[in-house]
Amino acid sequence: MATPRPQSSNFALRVRHFQQNSPQPTPFQLTAYLCSTSSTDPDSKDLALQYGFRVSDHMAALNIHPNEASVTAISRLAAAKGDGDYAFEVVKTLVDYQVPPRLRTYEPALFCFCQKLEADKAYQVEEEINNMGLSLEEPQIAALLKLSADTGREERVYNYLHKLRRSVRWISEETGKILEDWFLCKKSEIGSEGAKYDVGSVKESILRNGGGWHGLGWIGEGKWVVRKGNVEPNGRCCCCGEQLDCVDIDDVETEKFALSVAGLAMEREVKANFRAFQDWLGKNANYDAIVDGANIGLYQQNFAEGGFSVLQLDAVVKEMYTRNGNKWPLVILHNKRVRALLENLSSRKLVEEWKANGVLYTTPHGSNDDWYWLYAAVKLRCLLVTNDEMRDHIFELLGSSFFIKWKERHQVRYTFLKGTLKLQMPPTYSIVIQESEKGSWHVPIVCNRDEETLRTWLCITRPGACEEGGKTCEIDDGPCCKSPISEAGENGNHEKSNDKGTSMTESGFERLKLHKLEQTFMKIEVYIRQMTAGRMESQGMLPSQTDANPQENVSVITLRSGTVIVPPIQENDVTCSQKKKS
Ligand SMILES: [Zn+2]
């Protein structure tokens, strides 16, 4: 992982940082990197941009293929100049060289357009990112959300809020501020299509989506109330009293997940056996909980007399029966274990009792019962009692992020303390952005403290959308509910503050510093030319690919950005071709 970029203007520090992260950088990469980092420093920005573009033009003139890092650096330079179009153009050239761009490659153009409120261009960059199969992360989604809010596109804001919900579990303080600003602005008061949906269809959507969101649009009209507060351990919002959902994966994802489990099981198990199980499950789908029999029977049995504890398993079966309103769970157990249990008189009675109650499914000889219990739990959207963390290689094959989400919602863990069973049920609510059937939003903010009840949530309600005429939304702040944000008077200044007076740049000291920086850039540039010349000569490439400087000692360079630069001439300068641009 890359270490954070040094903020200091210390030149040597930057070089070292770059070298640590790029073991074998080309001189071009190095300079482009230096220029792009220097361009964030107001003192050296102009100089850095000037030299950065020159490096870019040298590269083009010498016909050197850019890589992702150098294009990203050049794109950052363009963005620092406020030229989003060029920042985007240069990224597109990567396709010509069949170099796959990364998300960071698009960031300069995207952020530049967002900052300048050039909404359509920013959406175009987003489209390109999607086309490349890359996924937006919080900073990009937040920037697009802010842009959409600032340009009053409430439907876009709604969609980005959902995108955020899908991408991150909780948001940063900065993103929270963007949301607050949106919900407190006049434009957010207008209702959209969502207002037309009736309560029934909203509820149905939430159910189909696995809970926690409906995605139908803003509900209701009028002012929003934004508060900051906590959520009680039972999932109740301290600010508005609403109950948060424990969010499951949606119907479509669940079905896909079940199919992929079945597909993998079919590859590894005797096909006929697994198909027989699927058929059986189809006819006996009335279970609310699946029990991983072996995991429970073998729990803490690694002592001398230990074996398979049928009593532990029976305790779990009976506990689940009681908890699920006198409904038996399904225990999956391998036939070699069942056979052993039947041979023993003391356990035989229990096994027969399970069989009589339809509790037991015996997996056949040669099977891996993991596939059976996992498939049953996914397919029937059941609880799954097991302490297996499912990190085995077979689960890695499923490797999707929603597997984690699925486990959180479905897995029941257990302990036996001095022989007494204790079940650890799934959490009562999920720490994710949630949209309720009333149209309110609950947004978790990043929290560095261990205790979940200390986490701050944004509680965003719309009294005008509530059936009870806003009764629930206008309750006084509870003990743990902080004041509405609108009165907080926070200063959302995202710009990097520059507290240096203008006199600094006018001082002799500052001029000296800039002069030294310029000299360093010039030295690097010469070094690059020498390096490149040497490298190309050794490859027998140079003479035919560079033009002699027609003016012998003056090279006027017109940048693609339109800037014309007359560079200072060095004695030992290696000829650089003039950029030919009509
Ligand atoms: Zn609330």
From TrEMBL:
Q: Which reaction does it catalyse?
A: Endonucleolytic cleavage of RNA, removing 5'-extranucleotides from tRNA precursor
The PRORP domain covers 232-459
Q: Which GO terms describe its molecular function?
A: metal ion binding; ribonuclease P activity
Cofactor dependency: Mg(2+)
Q: In this protein, which residues make up the domain named PROP1-like PPR?
A: 28-188
Is Glycosyltransferase found in the keyword set? no
Keyword entries, A-Z: Hydrolase, Magnesium, Manganese, Metal-binding, Nuclease, Repeat, tRNA processing, Zinc
Q: Identify which top EC class this enzyme belongs to.
A: hydrolase
Q: Which stretches does the entry tag as region Disordered?
A: 486-505
Q: What is its EC number?
A: 3.1.26.5
**Name by which UniProt lists this protein:** ribonuclease P
